[in-house]
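In response to the reviewer comment on reproducibility (Comment 2.3), we provide here a single inverse folding case reported in full, input and output, so that an independent group could reproduce the run without further information from us. The structure tokens appear first.
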């Protein structure tokens, strides 16, 4: 599935993932490929993205992206809240 994480200032991340875990208002939840359409508010916390390939840092990599030290295919992005939408295997996160 395609994943985009966007803040008012910049696009934080764009890439392919197999699963994404979110800090929901009522607790964490996860979406996988083929998940039904969903829109949800997000709480402060960390968005965990399981990538299809190891994450490659570049000079343009946003400082909000943290590599998981135990798995090169996992990144975490800290957010202060926001909204997520999944539709047709595309996840868009509008984060604060």
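Designed residues, in position order:
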């Amino acid at each position: 599935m395609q994943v985009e994480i966007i803040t008012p200032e910049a696009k934080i991340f764009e890439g392919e993932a197999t699963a994404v875990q979110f800090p929901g208002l009522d607790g964490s939840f996860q979406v996988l490929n083929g998940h039904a359409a969903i829109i949800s508010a997000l709480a402060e916390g960390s968005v965990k993205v399981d990538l299809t390939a190891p994450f490659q840092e570049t000079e343009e990599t946003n400082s909000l992206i943290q590599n998981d030290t135990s798995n090169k295919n996992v990144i975490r992005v800290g957010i202060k809240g926001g909204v997520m939408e999944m539709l047709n295997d595309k996840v868009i996160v509008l984060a604060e």
